[in-house]
Design goal:
13% strand, alpha/beta, 5 strands, 42% helix, 5-stranded parallel β-sheet
Length: 208
Amino acid sequence: MAAGIATSTEDVFINCPFDEAYASTFRALIFTVYLCGFRPRSARELDDAGQTRIEKLFALINECRYGVHDLSRTELDDVNHLPRFNMPLELGIFLRAKRFGAGAQKAKRLLVLDVEPFRYQRFVSDLAGMDIHAHGADPLRALAETRDWLANVSRRALPSAERVTRLYEAFLGQLTDLARELEFDPARLPYVDYERLVTGWLLRPPPA
């Protein structure tokens, strides 16, 4: 990992599960980050066969000043009966960049989410002492926690969590029609196309 590389104060690395059970929360986080004036970054955008996946993650994390890390997926999967370790791994890479990186890397800030505030002590006790934010598996709570954290660490004047929630619910009410206009299955929107729908919708005149 390159030390001292500049980080973007607009970029927010989102480290979370990508399964169907988490999809509604992932979409809420993407919407929240865009609405608050930042740019979400995710492993979902990595599609370059010229690099190994871990090298892509190193580069992506290096570029981001902020990171949202959801550790809520600890269940055993139905196929291999093993937990997924991608989220703790990517959190570790982010913490390593913050601790041992030079220059702007030391200014990294991170939010750690889980379903319960102290559950992490049973599966990753080395994080003891960190302020873990609970969302209770509720996408709108994850939205509010992320909005409030972004306002705190960036010191920017952001829309309230209530306003972000209201606008997100309005967007969801139109998402099916927006997707079908482009001949997408609303339940299977590719990541990049969901991003385009979000940013396009946010550029429209805001509701009264």
